[in-house]
Model the fold of this input.
Amino acid sequence: MANALVSIQILPSTPGGASVLPFVDRAIDIIKDSGVPYRVAPLETTMEGELSELLNIVQLMNEAMTEMGCASVISQIKIYYNPENGASMGRLLEKYPDGQ
Done:
């Protein structure tokens, strides 16, 4: 059972003022490739899993931004950690099945 939810908004300082969209797409691909459950929203993406694994994904996302030429990256992160009862996007969103 997952023990954490981590939401991240990644804000790369793109080279030459380039659009952030390809960088954000790469960050989301890293999440997708990790295999953890996730949900993309307009301003952040939420992942579900073991806290240590999710924090490692955050590290990989930041490293990917610098590998793509970003001088720096700001990652705004929210963590919900519940080792005793587990953490689940489904459970927290069950009253809002359509995202409303």
In short: Residues 51-67 form the longest helix (17 residues).
